[in-house]
Every structure is written in C-alpha cells, then in structure tokens.
Amino acid sequence: MALRKLLPFIIASLLLSLLVVMFQSPKTLIQRPVNAQESDRSGYFYLPVGSANVSALTRADYEQLIGKFVSFSFNQVYQKTGMPLIIPQEWESPYFAAFAQKKDHFMQISLWGGMARAPGVTKAALAAILCHELGHILGGEPRQTIPGSDWASIEGQSDFYSASECLPRFLKENPEIVTAVDPQVEKLCGGNSDCARTLQAGVEMIQVLQKYSYKENTPVNIFTPERATSALVRNTYPSDQCRMDSYVQGALCQLGESCRAPVCWLPE
C-alpha cells in the first residue's frame, strides 16, 4: 500500500533524471576534443575550445587583435555612420564565421573563435577578414540590394576597401601582424612594405578560405588576373581569383600609381 502511494513520486523522479541527462548530453559533446580530420572542411564550422590540432593563435592573440582593431576603426565608423562600433570577444564560439551587422544603435563586426582556431589561420588572415567586414560598413558604393542589407557594400567593394584603405593603415600601425612575406609578393610590390604587408595578408586570407570551402577550389595566382564580368557581381562573392585580384589591386594602390578596383567583379 505504501509502495503504491510512493509510485507517482518514483516515476516523477525517474523522468526528471532522464530530462537532466538529455539536457546535459549536448554540453558534454560540445566539450569533446576534435581531431584533424573532423576539423577539416566538413567539420571546420565546429571547433570548440579544447579541440586538438588547432591554429597557433591563442586566446590572448585573438583578444589583442580585436582590441587593436577596435581602437583603429572605432572613430572611422562613428564619423561615417553616427553609431559606435562593437566587436564582441567571442573566443568561446565554436563556429567558423565572421560578419558585419547594422543594429538599432550600433554597428557590429563578429569574428567567432572557431575561425581563429581553425588550423592554418594566421593573425594576418584574421586582419584581412576584419578589414573586409569593416569594408561592408565603410566601403561605400556599390551596395547590396538584399532587403535589410542595402546599407552594406558588396563583397567585391569590401575586399577592395580592405586592401586599398584598411589593411595598409592597420598593418602600418601593427607591422608585427605579418610575420613573413612571400618572395613573389615582394616581387610584385617592388619592395614597398605597405604593399607587401597588405598583399601578404590577402594571400593568407584567401588560402584559409579556400582550405575550408565546401566548393572545389581553382588555384589562384597573384600574377594572373581574371577577366571582366558581363554584369556587376552584387549580392554574392566573386570567384576566389577575383577576390585575390582585389587584394592585388588594393595593395598596388600603395605604390602611388593609379588606384582602381579589378575588372573581375565590375561590368564590362
């Protein structure tokens, strides 16, 4: 009789225990280490803190880079938009992503920790990514026509702004971010350090994006620019070669000669 009275409480306790296990399981899975195969391509978008085989960048490197970039760009954004710029410290995020957003009272750039931890990522590559996202805010025309995103410069213009305006100035203030320059980059830039640092950062960014892309990649070359398009590439990314061309042309702007965007994302 006593057991019958206690039975509902026993069943309730068992159900509660089951629910606790169900809600705790995802947390346990999130914390498990990821091996090199899991973190490459198909798993690149999920790389939690504690994963194995990550980039050489530390949390301190990540936070220092974001701090420097906020100091560098805050006044520019405020003067152009009338709103402050926020770049949250999101090292804990396991995902491979970076993006710019327009909020009600501020502009935001996000650079998630999973991207900084991806094997092969460098400070220079992240600097180019941050400058690209800043380009969406400050790059100007042409702009996207996607509803809700018409405030943002298109991808090609964001790349060109990154290479012609943002990276040369940011890397001149922080030259240690680029740790080495490829001889071919030095050759193209004719020994100009502003050009070389800018282009090297662009090269490292494209290499990272190609490494973790789902699509089949065509090799890019800083000496073989892509031809003009039949129409403006407005609401999507240009090809990888075209993006590389934007960093080449932007870097060459530092030589003091004619400065113009590459033809590959512009209409003929």
What are the defining features of this structure?
disordered N terminus, mainly alpha, 9 helices, globular, 268 residues
Rg, Å, rounded: 23 Å
The succession of helices and strands, N to C, reads HHHEEEHHHHHH
Mean pLDDT: 85
- Put simply, the count of helices is 9
Largest sheet: 3 strands, mixed
Instruction: Give the structural class.
Output: mainly alpha
Can you give the helix content as a percent range? 40-55%
Total of domains: 1
Q: How many strands appear in the DSSP assignment?
A: 3
- How much of the residues is beta strand, in percent? under 5%
Unreliable stretches, pLDDT < 50, 5 or more residues? 1-43
Principal-axis shape equals globular
Biggest sheet strand order reads 1-3-2
State the end-to-end distance.
88 Å
Structure characterization notes:
- The structure is a single chain.
- By secondary structure, the protein is mainly alpha-helical.
- The chain has one domain (59-265).
- Helices cover 51% and strands 4% of the residues.
- The protein is built from nine helices and three strands; from the N terminus they run αααβββαααααα.
- The chain has helices at residues 2-31, 36-39, 59-81, 113-117, 123-138, 155-173, 183-189, 193-211, 240-252; strands at 85-86, 98-102, 107-111.
- It has a three-stranded mixed sheet with strand order 1-3-2.
- Strand 2 and strand 3 form a beta hairpin.
- Helix 3 (59-81) runs parallel beside helix 5 (123-138), helix 5 packs across helix 8 (193-211) and helix 7 (183-189) crosses helix 8.
- The model is unreliable at 1-43 (pLDDT under 50).
